[in-house]
Input
Amino acid sequence: MITGPSGVGKGTLIRGLLERTPELELSVSATTRRPRPGEEDGIAYHFLTDAEFDRRVDAGDFVEHAIYSGNRYGTLRSELERRLAVGAPVVLEIEVEGARQVRAAMPAAIQVFIAPPSRDALRARLVGRGTDDPDQVDERMRTAERELGAQPEFGHVVVNDRLEAATDELARIVSGALGGEAG
Output
């Protein structure tokens, strides 16, 4: 599982990881947040209403779920089981609270925390992506401050300062866990 604050570049690093490690499959998370431009349901996320999310929580459909910046996120059990049934290693891109839940349920999972090079760099990334208003950026930064304190809980920490180097490091960690060589 790969976690870290919003805006740290988890998605970009995971795309690079998937290019270098094609046997990996990305689990598509569910969320109640509205799609951003270009995001497709079932590809970027499974976009659910609050009522549908509640129904699925009550049914036990989630391996983990958490609230992040006013929206709900979760990993559907069916997403993992479908991939694991065919022996495919799965990457989870999840928030810190969800990562804690997965760690409790699956302690053998490889746990990687993606950290920004600095708090200023993280704020600049959040502002630069242009998807949040200033109040939302402030809320994401408050959440990030709490999450950055969780780094020692994770087996690996990758600082996303230089994209290529961070992607290489992430690929080495995952490849080592899978028993192969990173490309």
The chain is about 45% helix and 15% strand. The chain has a mean pLDDT of 92. Helices lie at 10-20, 50-58, 77-85, 96-105, 119-129, 134-148, 163-178. The longest helix spans residues 163-178.
